[in-house]
Design a protein that fits this description.
By secondary structure, this protein is α/β, with parallel strands linked by helices. The protein contains four helices and seven strands. It has a seven-stranded mixed sheet with strand order 1-7-6-2-5-4-3. Strand 4, helix 3 and strand 5 form a beta-alpha-beta unit. The two termini are 25 Å apart. Bound molecules: adenosine-5'-diphosphate and magnesium ion.
Length: 156
């Protein structure tokens, strides 16, 4: 799978990278976003949702594992932080948010165990703190999405 390493130096840049992704995303795509608390996962997803035409304000779902939004394409945003592991949970938990009818973003994907293995993962992102407001973002996935990210980074 094609890979790319990126850096951002503030919140807006991370949001814009997410926004740029939107142009390459298609129905059924699953985007996994890994990284510790405060890395910028939700920031990036917020930008992607904006790029997909979502008008609601996107925050991390708190009392539920996910939220669905209407945009140019239907979008879902899942945050598995509070889930120790999906093993033993109802597999239908993810089925409400992931499928051929929407674009899905999943924060804390590692907590899903193998439940995400069979899904159509189009892109894996891993965000790391890199001092103050700097973030290092590793991307691996479909060429069309790597291209969208590279174009956004080159344009700034
Ligand atoms: P996560 O979802 O990974 O827990 P959030 O996106 O909710 O993280 O929060 C990221 C926090 O880090 C925000 O307070 C944001 O303002 C701050 N921040 C600082 N620099 C950056 C950056 N380069 N990219 C993204 N967020 C940043
Ligand atoms: Mg978050």
């Amino acid at each position: 799978m094609p890979k790319l390493e990126l850096e951002t130096s503030d919140e807006q840049q991370t949001e814009r990278l997410g926004e740029a992704l939107a142009s390459g995303l298609a129905l059924g795509d699953v985007v996994l976003v890994a990284g510790e608390l405060g890395a910028g996962k939700t920031t990036l997803v917020r930008g992607a949702c904006r790029g997909l035409g979502v008008r609601e304000h996107v925050t991390s779902p708190t009392f539920v594992i996910g939220a669905r939004y209407a945009g140019r394409l239907p979008v879902s945003h899942v945050d598995l932080y509070r889930l120790e592991t999906l093993a033993g949970e109802d597999p239908a938990l993810l089925a409400d948010y992931i499928g051929p009818d929407c674009v899905s973003f999943v924060e804390w994907p590692e907590r899903a165990g193998s439940a995400l293995d069979s899904e159509q993962v189009a892109l894996r992102l891993a965000i790391r703190h890199d001092g103050e407001d700097r973030r290092a973002i590793a991307a691996e996935g479909e060429q069309r999405l790597i291209d969208a990210l590279a174009a956004a980074a080159a344009a700034r």
